[in-house]
Amino acid sequence: xxxxxxxxxxxxxxxxxxxxxxxxxxxxxxxxxxxxxxxxxxxxxxxxxxxxxxxxxxxxxxxxxxxxxxxxxxxxxxxxxxxxxxxxxxxxxxxxxxxxxxxxxxxxxxxxxxxxxxxxxxxxxxxxxxxxxxxxxxxxxxxxxxxxxxxxxxxxxxxxxxxx
Length: 164
What we know:
By secondary structure, the protein is α+β, with helices and mostly antiparallel strands. The protein is 19% helix and 23% strand.
């Protein structure tokens, strides 16, 4: 009689784990399949064969990484003695900026941090300098934006930034 009563006590726990596993499997398949965002059929199409993993073609732009050439004015330079200080640039509007969801929204002129990637020199730059820089936005990291190159512009360059 001892064995059946022990089994009766653990059966609810076993059942709860089984139900949790089934629910997790259902949720995973509902949110990760091709029909998760639209009610399209899940049958393979010529563009997505069922035997190969889905990978973007070379002509498809990456939604997670994009580089822009931007102009702006340096508002702050990183100071190694000040915790959290970084390169801050008041940039012009970025017309073709694409957000993390892949929507081409554009980005208004604003002051933003653009941490320089390793190897990018800020030597010779000062607060107030006008610059042209390449900024890479990669939504797989935080912060997504970083400076990959920067060049000083002539002081008489006219920028279209709000709040001059």
